[in-house]
Please model this.
Amino acid sequence: MKRRGPLAFCLRLIFLAALVGLWQLVVVALDMPAFVVPAPTRVAYALYQGIGSDIYTTHLYVTVVETLLGFALGCVLAFLFGSVIAMSRTVEYYLYPLVVMFQAMPKVALVPIIVIWFGLGMSSKVVSAALVAFFPLMVNTIVGLRSADEDRVNLMRSLAASRWQIFRMLQLPNATPYLFAGLEIAMIFALIGAIVAELLGAEKGLGMYMQSLNFNMDVAGQFSILFILAILGLTLNGLIVLVRRRVLFWDRSRDTDVSSVSKGDVL
Amino acid sequence: MEPIVDPAAHGTFRTRSGGMIAVERLSLTYGRGASRVVALRDISFRITDGEFAVVVGPSGCGKSTLLKILGGLLSPTSGVAELKGQPITGPRRDIGVVFQTPVLFPWRTVVGNVMLPADVQGLDQTAMQQRALELLGQVGLGGFERRYPRELSGGMQQRVGIVRALLNDPAILLMDEPFGALDAMTRETLNVELQRMWMQRRITVLFITHSISEAVFLADRVIVLTPRPGTIGDQFEVDLPRPRTLEAMNTERFGHYVRRVRSALSARGGLE
Model:
């Protein structure tokens, strides 16, 4: 994105405020009932009350833990599988059809089954988050490890490097831009996986709480949860970006906000 | 050059002592059947200790294939390539290779890139670090040790590539068109500099290029490869005093060697 001045930034804020104002105006002017479309003021009030009563924070905590655990589990597995597939043509040959099939399948469609298998507690949310986070990172791991250019591989070979040395000193650092792109997507996907599992049946968590608000026709409350989820997603993504900037100081090609390496993996 | 006496004698070789590199009736064929391509056919030459040998030829003459065989990255179909009397069967630690592009790792600093062979081969870190810094200073890269490759110009990057190849004091330096990607003026500067570095060390060099003047300027011995299939068209010693200057390229003697390369190329090239 092009860098713009502070004036443009102010204009951007004004534009957003105008949108919210328009929303308020339409709701008031058309006298819309709050259980259909609540006014922004009602949403803000619900948010204020929810945060004040620490109901939100308990549910938020559960969702964050599920997301992070699922993210960690999914990423470790994705990295291991991705590495093995990238390094061995034989393994790739046998696993590839499965990978392609899972790639094409909407992973969230598996979540109801996962809830049956793992119950209403946190474990089904962690597994669901891990499953959804798994694929984008695995694909990027494979692509990243394979992307080492031939001259560099030849250089390592001419130095009589072992296969493990080529992996450690060349392929792995070379793959880090791809890995971070995968991690960014995986983080957001883990949140999606956790929320979908919570919607389908849970004891705690923002998704479950939103579901119960829905039964009470508390649309303003649901909007306030959506707002929290957006902030949560941004924060989690921001953490990855922060780490990436530190690790990938040498890679200037991807200073944009969201990496574009492999975003083809749509739910 | 030894004449080819009997094709049936393929596979039996006499190894003569002396000479850093001995290549005997080396052939390499890619593919098989209809898609069969003979990249090299019956290449024989030797390079003595401390000699600067240049292989010159047009693209497709098998220069890079020859270098890959000597670097142990490819196995010949027939014939042998020997280094210090031992056949080259795989990558060896006493061979330094400089590629067409600098091939630096962007996540390593300049000195980190130079230290790559030490890291791979588990050499003594402190001693090698010392040597790396020394070598970098000698090619005018003092002060750039902690920089990253992207902060360097193309010519500086290729110098880092050369220093990396020299780090573990290889018996022979293989250079695959190392200055081909640089602009003409940087290329001439680096040629002069390479000559200076070589004169200090008298390391054995096999240099590959498609530039005739570069070949004559650098070489003690020129090996002319002609394409399809890659065979040796001519091979001769260049008797010009060193250090050679860029002005020397305008002399009659220099021109004589250039013409000799050209005539070897046109005798075999052009028409199939």
Summary: Chain B has a mean pLDDT of 85.
